[in-house]
Amino acid sequence: MDLNAQRFTWLALQLTLIRVYIGLDFTHHFAEKFGLLGHEARAELVQYFAGLGYAHPAFMMMIGGLCEFGAFVGFTFGLFTRVAAVGTSLYLIICLFSGGHQDNGFTWANAGGGWEFPAMWAFLCLSFVLTGGGKWSADALIRSRLSDKSPKALKLIVA
């Protein structure tokens, strides 16, 4: 194997590891919102969402949990990765502003957390619009099984 082929394989592996980590990172977040980590943790989150001013905090928390579950599936398995990248980035930007992080300065270590961390995660997730799921993903598996008669939209999503 020549050096360029080896480099391509290592880059594919690197992107896969980053993609999978991003997906797995959302596990705790959606599990907490779905009550899988206990009712006390879920109740505290409902109170947090109420403190953000949501009229229906439990409902909004569940919407957040569904977004996080979608991010988990999309990134961990590389399933419709580009769609997951856009959706997750939008979700993180909305969280940045609805959580008031923009008012806490840049540095995440600031009291209440600044906007550095959610912005970095949103940018990192959005970068997967460029690469898709990569060589080792559900997208690649689906792509390998598509025919000329497959819907163009599906071909575009898993490209």
Question: How does this model look, in words?
Answer:
With 159 residues, the chain is mainly α. It has helices at 3-33, 39-51, 57-77, 81-98, 116-126, 128-131, 138-145, 152-157. Helix 1 runs antiparallel to helix 3 (57-77), helix 3 runs antiparallel to helix 4 (81-98) and helix 4 (81-98) runs antiparallel to helix 5.
Task: Please describe the topology of this protein.
Blueprint: H1 3-33, H2 39-51, H3 57-77, H4 81-98, H5 116-126, H6 128-131, H7 138-145, H8 152-157
Helix pairs in contact: 1-3, 2-3, 3-4, 4-5
Question: Main attributes?
Answer:
159 residues, 8 helices, 0% strand
User: What is the helix tally?
Assistant: 8
The count of DSSP E runs of length 2 or more, i.e. the number of strands, is: 0
Secondary structure class reads mainly alpha
Mean pLDDT: 92
Round the Cα radius of gyration to an integer and report it. 18 Å
Strand content: under 5%
Distance between the termini: 26 Å
- Categorize the overall geometry: globular
Can you give me a brief rundown of this structure?
With 159 residues, the chain is mainly α. It has helices spanning 3-33, 39-51, 57-77, 81-98, 116-126, 128-131, 138-145, 152-157. The model has no long low-confidence stretch (mean pLDDT 92).
